[in-house]
Amino acid sequence: MPTGLSVRIVAYVCGCVALLFLSGCAAVGRLTQLEDGWYHVPHLGGNDSLAQQLRQVPKGLVYVQQRADTLLLSPYTEQPQPSTYHYELQSNHHALLFNRTFDVDVFTLPVKARPPREGVPVQLNTTFSAAVYVGRRVDYYYLHKHTLAPWQHEPRIRATGLGYGLFFGMGSTNVTNDVTRQHAGPEYEGFVLHAGAATIYDARIFNVGLAVGFDNLLGPDRTYWIYQHRPWFGLLFGLDLN
Questions:
Q1: Are 16 and 124 part of one and the same domain?
Q2: Is 190 domain-assigned?
Q3: Are 191 and 215 in contact (CB under 8 A)?
Q4: For the segment 97-141, what is each residue's pLDDT rounded down to a tens digit?
Q5: How far is CA 166 from CA 18, 56, 102, 144, 197, in A?
């Protein structure tokens, strides 16, 4: 059952997350420069006809380069000299770009919630867990021109990422008589391997996600462990260090 230490750990994790939000909320998802590359361009505020034209190109791909407050848009083509359109960011409209990528991340699992089983109530597992996440993601970029003064402007870019995929990793769990049908003997921390599926939200400073997985306890008590290969629900959390 959850102990006072477990509650304090959960409170500490929640406090760290809240601190990240409070200390960096103005910078969450903020970029100073759009990386050159291939994007889909579904919307260009103030120039919908150009956006509609770009959506018709093969694969819908446009090579985008940012030059101060202007975007250079080169539609996908096999011709040696592609056409390039210039789009100037506007203060009263925004441009929307997105791209799809393959994603690999390392996360911690600060909290696992195990449903009731065999007379044992809901369990909150806050012991060590880590996972490697592999999946697909879509990154969205909202761009506009921000007015600092009537004579001064700067481009603003807000970016968010959404993804889905699979994870696998390892961790520990408390093994007691209550969760091993009275076969465990003295309480100890057992070693588990886990796997499952998750969705993630990437705010550029940190990543959070919701996970559904199952554990495989290693050791002599695995046959009696009531949570062996049973689903649990949890949180993924990680920091962007690159």
A1: yes
A2: yes
A3: no
A4: 999 999 898 999 999 999 999 888 999 989 889 999 999 999 999
A5: 27, 33, 12, 35, 4
- pLDDT for 8-33, tens place per residue? 444 444 444 444 443 333 345 788 89
Which residues are bridge partners to 133 per DSSP? 105, 167
- How many other CB atoms are there within 10 angstroms of residue 65's CB atom? 14
Whether residues 201 and 163 share a domain: the answer is: yes
Q: SS3 breakdown of the chain: % helix, strand, coil, rounded to 5?
A: 15, 55, 30
Cβ–Cβ < 8 Å for 206, 240? yes
Tokens, residue 157: 């870019």
What is the phi/psi pair of residue 99, to 5°?
A: -145, 160
Q: Which residue has the tokens 């060590």?
A: 128
Evaluate whether 124 touches 6 at the Cβ level (below 8 Å): yes
Helices (H) and strands (E) in the chain, counts: 2, 12
Tell me which residue range forms the domain holding 61.
32-88
From 148, 102, 114, 132, select the one nearest 196 (Cα to Cα): 132
